[in-house]
Write a structure and sequence with these properties.
The protein is α/β, with parallel strands linked by helices. It has 12 helices and 26 strands. The chain is elongated and about 75 Å long. The mean pLDDT is 97. The chain binds MU-OXO-diiron (FEO).
Length: 402
C-alpha cells in the first residue's frame, strides 16, 4: 500500500473514527490524511497527519525509513489535519530542517512553538535531495494564506496540498488504478467515478469560497509537466489526472453542469410537496436534478449539488415575515461561497402574508443570479393549481436544452 515508486512512499493514515470533518462536515466514507516520504540521498517528509494518529503515522514512517532519519519536513499547509504531528517529528529527529514559506513561519510558532532550524523558501526556490530536487510554488488561499505546493522534479509529481483532494478513506491501495473508496461498491479501476461526489462535496464545503485563487493556482501550474498528483486527502492521481483537474477547474469557475439543485425547507409539508412536484415535472422532461431537504439532511450535500448544477431552485415558507431559517442559512452559505453563474427560482408557502419568495429572489439577485421567474408563492396547502411547477419545469427544460 505504501510504495508509490522506488523513491516515493505513502505514509498517511485513514480516519474512520471522526464523524465530522472540521467539526461540521459528515464523513460517511471516512477521510485520509495523506503524507509522503521521499527517499533519496536526503529524505523528505511532505506534511504530517492529524494528532490522533501519532502512533500509526510514526510507525508508517519508520517502516519506510529503516535506520535513516528524516532530513527535511516540507510544510505545504498548516491546517492541523496536516501539521499536528510536526512537533513529534521534531522531537523524534531533532536535526530535521523544516521547509516552509514566510507566511507559514508565525503559524508554526503559534501552533507548535517551533522557531529554530526553519528554512524559508519563496516562489521557484528548490532544495536538492541528491539525485532529485524539490521546487516550491506559492499557492495562497488554496486553502489558507500560507499554502504552497511542492514539485518533485525527477518523478514529475506535484504535492498539491488540499487541491485535488476529496473526502473518503482509501482502501486496497493509494493510487487511482488500485484504490477503492472505503464503504463504496464501485470496483477498483474507476477511482474518479468512485470519489467524484465526495470530491465535489469536499470542494464545495472546504475550498468553495476560493474559486479565484484555485484558478490562479491552476494557471500557475499549467506550465508544469505533471504525471502524478499527491493531494493531502484522497487518492494519488496518476491515471485520472485529466478528469480531476477538469473537475477542480470547473468547480472553481463556478461552471455548473446542466441540471437543477432543488434545496427546500418545509414546516408542515406544503413547501415539501411543491419541491416533489417540481422534481416530478423535471423527471418527465428528462432534466437532471437533485433534491435536498434542508431540515433533515446535512446541508453539505445541498452545497455539493448547488456547485454541480447550473440551476438552483430554493423553497422556503414564510416565517416571521422572513425566509424560514434553514433556507435562509443555506442561501447565506451560497453567498459565503461567492457562488456565481446560476439560474435561480424560488417557491414557498405562506399562511397570511407571503415574504419568503420575494426575499429569496432578492438574495439571488444580489449574487447576480438570473431569475427564471418571479417565483411561486402560494397560500396555505400546496395544490398544482396554486403552484404550477409544470410551467417552471418548462422554462428550466427550455434553458437546459439550449
Ligand atoms: Fe486538509 Fe486545509 O486542510
Amino acid at each position: 500500500m505504501s510504495k508509490i515508486s522506488e523513491k516515493l512512499r505513502y505514509v498517511g493514515v485513514n480516519d474512520l473514527k471522526k464523524t465530522a470533518f472540521e467539526g461540521m462536515w459528515p464523513l460517511p466514507y471516512g477521510v485520509s490524511y495523506n503524507s509522503y516520504l521521499i527517499l533519496d540521498g536526503k529524505t523528505a517528509l511532505i506534511d504530517t497527519a492529524e494528532a490522533d494518529f501519532a502512533t500509526e503515522y510514526m510507525d508508517n514512517i519508520r517502516k519506510e525509513l529503516g535506520d535513516r532519519k528524516v532530513d527535511y519536513l516540507i510544510v505545504n499547509h498548516m491546517e492541523p489535519d496536516h501539521s499536528s504531528l510536526m512537533k513529534v517529528i521534531r522531537e523524534t529527529w531533532p536535526e530535521v530542517t523544516i521547509v516552509a514559506n514566510a507566511k507559514t513561519v508565525p503559524m508554526i510558532k503559534g501552533y507548535y512553538g517551533i522557531c529554530d532550524n526553519v528554512h524559508i523558501v519563496k516562489e521557484g526556490d528548490s532544495i536538492s535531495l541528491g539525485a532529485s530536487s524539490l521546487t516550491f510554488h506559492m499557492t495562497p488561499m488554496v486553502h489558507w494564506p500560507e499554502t504552497m505546493m511542492t514539485y518533485f522534479d525527477e518523478e514529475k509529481t506535484l504535492f498539491s496540498g488540499d487541491a485535488f483532494g476529496t473526502f473518503g478513506a482509501l482502501e486496497g491501495g493509494v493510487t487511482d488504478s488500485v484504490v477503492r473508496l472505503h464503504g463504496s461498491d464501485v470496483p477498483t479501476g474507476n477511482a474518479f467515478h468512485a470519489f467524484a461526489d465526495e470530491m465535489r462535496r469536499y470542494y464545495s464545503n472546504i475550498v468553495g469560497k476560493y474559486g479565484q485563487t484555485v484558478q490562479a493556482a491552476l494557471k500557475k501550474l499549467s506550465g508544469l509537466e505533471i504525471s502524478r498528483i499527491c493531494s493531502t486527502h484522497g487518492p494519488v492521481w496518476e491515471k485520472n489526472i485529466p478528469e480531476v483537474v477538469s473537475c477542480y477547474d470547473r468547480l472553481s469557475r463556478y461552471e455548473g453542469e446542466k441540471g437543477v439543485c432543488i434545496a427546500y425547507a418545509s414546516m408542515y409539508g406544503n413547501t415539501a410537496k411543491a419541491a416533489e412536484s417540481l422534481a416530478s415535472e423535471l423527471e418527465k422532461r428528462g432534466v437532471p436534478y437533485a433534491v435536498h431537504d434542508l431540515c433533515t439532511e446535512h446541508v453539505s450535500y445541498a452545497y455539493r449539488d448547488a456547485f454541480k448544477y447550473d440551476t438552483l431552485v430554493v423553497g422556503a415558507p414564510t416565517y416571521n415575515n422572513d425566509i424560514f431559517p434553514p433556507a435562509y442559512n443555506f442561501m447565506y452559505g451560497i453567498a459565503a461561497r461567492l457562488m456565481k453563474n446560476r439560474r435561480f427560482a424560488a417557491f414557498g408557502s405562506f399562511t397570511w402574508a407571503g415574504a419568503s419568495v420575494k426575499l429569496l429572489n432578492g438574495m439571488a439577485s444580489g449574487l447576480g443570479f438570473e431569475l427564471l421567474s418571479d417565483g411561486l408563492s402560494f397560500p396555505q396547502a400546496f395544490t398544482p393549481e396554486k403552484c404550477d411547477m409544470g410551467a417552471l419545469a418548462d422554462t428550466i427544460a427550455s434553458q437546459v436544452t439550449e
